[in-house]
Design brief:
Belongs to the nitroreductase family. It contains 8 helices and 4 strands. By secondary structure, the chain is α+β, with helices and mostly antiparallel strands. The structure holds flavin mononucleotide. Flavin mononucleotide binds at residues 11-12, 14, 91, 116, 161-165, 188, 206.
């Protein structure tokens, strides 16, 4: 698989088969991902990967918990901006539409959204966090690392879904994996597994902004 194929075939997968993911594969992917770039070569990302019993136990704790207050961080500020809100609404319409869930069916929408707790059935979950003193540039480094992982997972025939939703349970997660809430902020989860090819939620079309609406070329 070349890079273009990995980029084109990656999508956020929200239904998985039960096929497990081996430690060897994950170590190979995460070892390669160490070469992701970061400002000042800080490599600010840190993570814990769970599967099997530790993952089940975490999911049980999250199911028994309420979303935390105060929030770990806010991810929905762009919703105040009409074009960004429109993109979110288009995503919702495409995703729920693919599953035959009506816009007005708040209960079914919430039920699907709650499936974030079990990472949509993925057999492995990576949770990533960074020390609290890091700022926006280091958060962006974390994103580059995650995308590197997601592309390398494609090369291994694996799929993923980033889950900032997990930040609603950041303290429960950190407590479970033994990471200090005082010193670390949790960014997101990354569900990892094999895509369920039959699931309509894995095949809907994702809208993207046209190239010339997001990049300007000067001097060519
Ligand atoms: C940092 C980050 C956090 C995300 N969090 C969630 C999440 O909590 N739950 C979810 O279903 N999708 C989540 N997504 C997936 C996005 O909705 C998805 O990337 C976007 O709609 C584009 O679709 P694609 O990934 O299939 O190309 C997240 C994506 C990123 C990059």
């Amino acid at each position: 698989m070349n890079v273009s194929e990995a980029v084109a075939s990656r999508r956020s997968i929200r239904a998985y088969t039960e096929e497990p993911v081996s430690l060897d594969t994950l170590r190979r992917v995460l070892d390669k991902a160490r070469m992701a770039p970061s400002g000042c070569n800080f490599q600010p990302w840190q993570a814990t990967v769970l599967t099997g019993e530790p993952l089940k136990a975490l999911q049980t704790k999250m199911l028994a918990s309420e979303p935390q207050d105060p929030v770990e961080y806010s991810w929905d500020a762009p919703n105040q901006s009409p074009p960004h809100l429109a993109r979110l609404q288009t995503l919702g319409a495409s995703m729920y539409g693919a599953m035959g869930i009506a816009r007005a069916d708040a209960e079914a929408r919430k039920k699907f959204s709650d499936a974030n707790i079990v990472s949509f059935g993925a057999p492995a979950l990576l949770v990533c966090y960074l020390e609290r003193f890091h700022e926006a540039p280091q958060w962006s480094d974390m994103g580059m690392w995650l995308q590197t992982i997601m592309l390398l997972l494609r090369e291994e025939g694996l799929d993923s879904c980033p889950q900032e939703w997990m930040a609603m349970f950041a303290r429960v997660i950190k407590d479970h994996i033994g990471v200090s809430d005082e010193s670390h902020i949790l960014f997101c989860g990354l569900a990892i597994g094999h895509r369920d090819e039959q699931a309509s939620v894995n095949t809907f079309e994702r809208e993207r902004v046209a190239l010339d609406d997001q990049v300007r070329f000067l001097g060519f």
